[in-house]
Structure formats: structure tokens, C-alpha cells
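Hey, can you fold this one?
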Amino acid sequence: MKKITLFSIVTATVLVTGCSNSTTKEAANKAAEATSSAVDTLKNKASEMAQTAKDKAAEAVEAAEAKTEEIAAAAKARAEEAATAVKEKASGTMDAVKDRTEAAAAATKEKVAEAVEATKAKTEETATAIKEKAAEAVSAVKEKAVEAASTTEEKIPEAEKPAASAEDKSPVTAADTSAGKVLYAKCAGCHGADGKTRALGKSDPIAGLSAEVIAEDLKGYKAGTLNKHSMGSVMKGQAAGLSDADIAALSAYIAALK
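Sure. Predicted structure:
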């Protein structure tokens, strides 16, 4: 717009000069100078406008860079927050899993302990039952043995029963014979009700031995120092539970079988 205005002024000046008979060469020069000055002014103005535009562009670039950095910082912060949240969530999940695992392990341990206790109680109950049955069986065997011994003794005529040996240092009482009879019940299985059977086909018959010899042998077997006919280990087990009084009563009974 400014260029058109300047051009119009120059044109008007030329026309006025051409139409006027009084226009001189000096006026033409002034018009040229005016035109040149207007052009310079226009150039300066254009330069100023270009610089202003450049400055504005630089400011816009700086503002854009600042905004970009701000956006990047915000994005980074949000990313860090998200990562922290994920980490916390994962940690919480691991803790929950750990708690559940420990709870399951504790429950399993309790179940195992209960099973062990139940098994132990059952085992003890079974052992008690077996012990009772064994005791009943032993009692039954003793009763049978005593009955058999009594029957055998009854069948022996009084005339055939030998008198007490003079070698016996102490008299055999009825109490000794009665107690010995009960104790001999478990001996009768190997030695026979009359004491004349070779135990396991190895030992000599024990009927006819004196009470002292029998007592000495029983004590030797019990102590593990006697091993007649390789029967030491067997007899040690049989004599292990005998007291001195039991040995005396049993010896008296066996001596009476001769």
C-alpha cells in the first residue's frame, strides 16, 4: 500500500512538472531525491519488519522448546509414578503370596502332626491290645501246662516217687513246689511235663538233677556265663526274668520230678 502511495506521488510530480512551463531541471532532481528517500525509508521499514518477524520466530521457537521440555518432564514424572505404582503392586502381590504360602505350610504341618499323633495313639492302642492278648495266651498256656503237670504227677504212683535226696541242703516246702509248678509251665514245652525230654534234641533230661545243680545252672544261664549244649542264648532268654526266689522255687519243683 505504501509503495502505491509513493508511486502516485512520484507520478503526480512528473505530471505537474511536465505540464508546467516553469518546471526546471532542479525540480526534477528534487523529485528524484524524494523518490530515492521514499525507497530508502521503505527498505528500512521492511528491514525492521523482517527483524521483528525474526525475533518473534526466535521467541516462538524458545517457547516451543520450553513447552516441549515441560511436557517431557511431566511425561517422565507420570512414567516414574506409574513404575512406582506397579512396583508397589508387585510387592504387595509377593507379600500376599508369601503369606498364603506360609499359612499353607503351617496348616500342612498341623495336619502332619495330627496324623502322627493319631498314628502314635493307634500304635499304642494296638500294642496294648497285643500285650493283653499275649498275656492272656501266656496265662492260658500256663494253666494248660499246670494242668498237664498235675495230671502227670497224679499218674505217677506214690511208690515210684523218689524220696528227697540227702544231698539237698534245705527241705522242699509245699509253697516252693506250688510256685515252681507255675513257673515250670513255660519250661514244659521243651523239657516235657516230666522233665525227661531232651530240649530241642540237644540237652540232657533235667529230671533227676538236684535243686542245687538246677539253681546253679539257671543262675549261670541268666548271667550269660553258661552255655551247655550250645543252649546258652536260648536259656538266657528264658532265665532273664527269674528272681532268686523264682529260681529256688523252680529248682525245687524240677528236683521233685526225678
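The chain has a mean pLDDT of 77. Let me know if you want another pass with a different chain boundary.
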